[in-house]
């Protein structure tokens, strides 16, 4: 060992820097991963993250039980709005902090008097190996790369800090300060996500196993700390009783018994992925266990593992602590409380620390039995580094799947072809790419999995509508409406079909019905605005256009349609303003550049029209409309007469 590494503080700093470098390398391709799935409700369309203190009129249902998580999203929004890189930076920073907290916790535990003679000289390296394997494991990508799941990582960070501060309080001369910090971190964990409610229980277990000689000693030394944790626990109990959860999609037809009997198979799947993460998917569509083999066999395995943890807690308490902690942390999401998604990988974020620590301790135990420890140690170190490298590579590859909707859902249907939601979202992704035939085929695959699913009918209807099969699309939307009469997407789809069929009265009827079911629907407001504009009710149309544009912060279509409205009224400055704002949302959209160039041309601003047309041709060199427009602009600049250019309304 180099002399400069002989000091423990220097070693800790060097190893911490290596952990940071490894995590940043593994997640170096996550910065442009787009919003996914629940991100749109909880981040993009969530007005509760726009301000630190939520006004009474703002619906804060999604985050009312998770105020600390909302504060973290507010901090990201306050510093960068909906900028993806800024939001991902927050997620990666939380993951890095949690990695360092695990590193510090394992190191502090191994330096306790009962372990120092055996592990003290290697405490930093053992802690480093544990944190490295945990942080680079591809199971963690869902909690780091999937933006809204930062709440899982943030909860785990405060959970780990609770235990770290507790460990620091044991030997510190200012133990009371560390106890205050532990109670604060515990409260923050509870306020971030529901699993944080296990932090006090795990803290008591850690205290009794590693720190306190007996229960009386535990209470005598740290009763104030545990008492300080009570207010957050009481608040959580009342919040659970008064607030309906919208973030985890609780229940929805799944009974507690159905959920409970399905979870043993799910947990065993988590453990398999911890050991061999070859197939990772966002949406499992995990089926409810119905047959006895599906229920009993996984249940017996879990009962055996739980029983082994309890026996170890008696005979070898440190190992028993690890086993029991695994079950305690998974209990809120893998027991009786029914959640719509039976299996979700982000739930293994914190529990994954247990197999990581057990693996490293197993390697250490193996080395202790070897006669030639130096050689065995070198081999073991090389193997651990290879494992970490493989995990980091797999994490990097998994983040490539997240780079686009098409890549993410394409990987999902490849690795889990039984998920109707995956096929439906894959269809939407194909539709966004203009691959209509493939989108229709994917939507039909979703419907084949569950032909009485109203959402699947809507997805197929959207694909058919986009490919101009209007009558077939209308039939699918009608089928969805029959399955669920008060279903906003079905009414919206029917309205769009009638608009395409040139039946504005019927379109208006269904747009208004859609708004009755979903008053904040930007699509319905935009559609109704176009209907009202068609019949000359400009004032009402503008109100609906304004609502859609202000409510939808990412989609440029509404701004584009609003610009088209002004062009038809020859109000070109207003149209240009809307097109420019649309381009702020999607700078490389050739269609919007075409409309902007047309608006400039028709307003007489030929230099700006030329710039917009050139930009269009750079984005789409083969654009016939762009080339014709540029020729007309050049002719007009030379003083030659040119016929007016007709503005085509994409709606």
Provide a brief overview of the structure.
α10 (199-211) runs antiparallel to α11.
Descriptive keywords:
651 residues; mainly alpha; 71% helix; disordered C terminus
What does this structure look like?
The protein is mainly alpha-helical. It contains 30 helices and no strands. The chain has helices at 8-26, 39-44, 67-80, 84-110, 116-119, 123-136, 141-144, 150-171, 175-192, 199-211, 215-242, 256-275, 292-315, 317-330, 353-368, 373-401, 405-415, 420-432, 436-449, 454-466, 470-483, 488-500, 504-517, 522-534, 538-551, 557-568, 572-585, 590-603, 606-619, 624-637. Helix 3 crosses helix 9 and helix 18 (420-432) runs parallel beside helix 20 (454-466). The longest helix is centred in the middle third of the chain and has 29 residues, at 373-401. It is elongated, with a radius of gyration of 29 Å. Residues 244-251 and 644-651 have low confidence and may be disordered.
Distance between the termini: 70 Å
State the helical fraction.
over 70%
Instruction: Note the total helix count.
Output: 30
Largest sheet descriptor: none
